[in-house]
Amino acid sequence: MGAKAIAEAAVSSGLEAYFGYPITPSSEIMENISVLYGERKYPWFKVFLQSASEIESVNMLFGAGAAGYVSMTATSGLGLSLMAEGISYAYASEVPFLIIDVNRGGPGLGNVAPEQSDVSFVLNSLGHGGVKPIVLAPHTVQESMEHVHKGFELAFTYRIPVILLTDALIVHMYDTVEWEPPYIVKPNVDWAARGRNYGQRHIINSIYLDPPELKANKERLLQKQKEIEKIAESECFMCNDYLDVLYIAIGISARISKEAVLKLRENGIKAGLFRPITLSPLDKDNLLKYSSRAEKMVSVEMNEGQLAQEIMRITRRDVDVLPYLGGYIPDVEEVAEAWK
Amino acid sequence: MEVKQFSSIYENGITTYCPGCEHGLLLKFIGMALDELGITEKAIMVGSVGCSTLAYKFLNVDYVQAPHGRAPAIMSAIKLLEKDKVVFGIQGDGDALSIGIAELIHAANRGIPITVFMYNNMVFGMTGGQMAPTTPEGMKTMTTPFGRDIKQMGPPLDACKILSAFPQISYLKRVVITPKPIFTKDRVMYSSKEAMDSYKAVLNAFKTQLMGGFSFVEFIGTCNVNWKMTILDSKKYVHDVGVKVYPPALCRDAFGVDKR
Amino acid sequence: MYQVVHSKWEVIINKERCKGCEICINACPQQNLSLSENVNSQGYHYVEFSEMGKKGECTGCKICWWVCPEYAILKVRKNEKADYGS
What we know:
The structure holds three protein chains of three kinds.
Chain A: H1 2-13, E1 17-20, H2 27-39, E2 47-50, H3 54-66, E3 71-75, H4 77-82, H5 84-93, E4 98-105, E5 111-114, H6 119-124, E6 134-136, H7 141-158, E7 162-167, H8 168-172, E8 203-204, H9 211-228, E9 234-237, E10 243-248, H10 251-266, E11 271-276, E12 278-280, H11 284-292, E13 294-301, H12 306-315, E14 320-323, H13 332-337
Parallel strand pairs in A: 1-2, 1-3, 3-4, 4-7, 6-7, 10-11, 10-13, 13-14
Antiparallel strand pairs in A: 4-5, 6-12, 9-11
Helix pairs in contact in A: 1-2, 1-7, 3-5
Chain B: H1 23-37, E1 43-47, E2 62-65, H2 71-81, E3 86-92, H3 93-99, H4 101-110, E4 115-120, E5 123-124, E6 130-131, H5 150-153, H6 159-163, E7 169-176, E8 181-183, E9 188-190, H7 193-210, E10 214-220, H8 231-245, E11 249-253
Parallel strand pairs in B: 1-2, 1-3, 3-4, 4-10, 7-10
Antiparallel strand pairs in B: 5-6, 7-11, 8-9
Helix pairs in contact in B: 1-7, 2-4, 3-4
Chain C: E1 9-13, H1 23-27, E2 33-39, E3 45-49, E4 52-53, E5 56-57, H2 63-67, E6 73-78
Antiparallel strand pairs in C: 1-6, 2-3, 4-5
């Protein structure tokens, strides 16, 4: 199952601490990790703790990250709202960790069917003060495993929180995977707060009472954002062409849109799919290149059009939206019809 | 200055607390205890939001700034991963008992060996003196200008009573850190007994952590600027009103450190 | 002939840290501490030590050291300038 694959990928990639709170549809990830912790197969997996709430979860991740340990949790949209303060603190104090968001129906209590309605939340500002964590969006179970490993690596390279945006379907589906971690993530943590140890003290801080100091901190974070731009990645599925329609989708919608593109190509219509792999930073160069050769753009999403807003902002062109609300999964026929 | 100071305090460090506040006294005793036990190099301090956030400019140890009320969760995570370090935190009474009470209770229930110091001045100090869960009945604060009404807000919370319910706490103590004013016929003097007791409490709290237990010490202190009193009046207030609501007590001492 | 008298103990003060809260001034039983006319760089009148107070010389009781909240009273130690055995 997707959850078991993600748990196996995380622990074999070098996970050292897991703090979680159960919430459907992400609880299976925590359950599988607790089994791996109990079996003691991996000597670097030191701590597993079920916390009392999502707020306690994110703060324990903050503590583990401040001490320089690879840590992770899995939650859903409701928990992510509660974690927003902790993520803002981590972004400002440069503390790394990984959060897997298994998107369910929202807003409010919603339902437990899959949706992609957290896109606006994670892209615009995941917390107060302008917070831009790195967001990865896998579309298969295998890619989720790769992204967990990549997430750990990116979090510690840039000292920034990383969000993995999946949905309830990917985490619960059965698929064939073949993947081994290329190496165990063992980051360099000279900056971590592990005691003075006869050297310089280490400070993990986000309060700067004087305006010039706070401005300098924000400018440093913005400069880091510019450097992070170079890891932007996307997949171009039959889109390197003059196109009648360019589909834009992430996650499970992307998988279904690929089928629709193949179907349209059989009937002679020039269709293509642009799939962002890193949602933040979005691969602007490739998007502008491929969209400039497309007559029309259609965004297939399991929400009211959140990704389309971002695409419209970047390309300054209109994007048609094919929304799926309430937990409905896109249908290949409807997606193929939308090109008109 | 040829005088040798504690290695855990910056040589030219200046506290930024209000004149007369005993927060600085708590920091001085923490620095002194870290030096006496020789654990300065492996101490990690977790600061909270409130007046305790200013501690990092004075104490020269590793520091992590926590969100409001969440310091016990961060301390638990750091201690689980770095078992041989000494992890401690300073919180205010609003931080620990208002917004952070869930984190404090769960950390106390787990009993992971950390040390929590709570400076209780019966109001929210940093934000200007609003009512806190520990405000006694009838006390006038910025949000209770006519006195705290216990019919609606309930009586003040007693941290020692709440935490005594958890069996895995090893050291639970409340001391008064305000020096007691002694009035003679022509002048006022201060006693140093409270300060010495507070230092012993800090030292024993660290010793409990080194022996593997969770320790929590509550210090009753003044906030003369936000109580709108002079320094002398605020010290009198603590010893007239404060100790009646929060009498000093040793609520638990599982390893018997106080007797040694 | 005047003989200069020193107290057996002296109090070392870091005047930059002092905030003039006057706790130590009240706490000293011999009243050896008083507020200076000058201000330090923070703007507070800081406290000064005189070896002979209103009620006698400094006895090294250290009450001022215990109650100072700013660590401005650094140390209470034996005075090297005192005449021993005279």
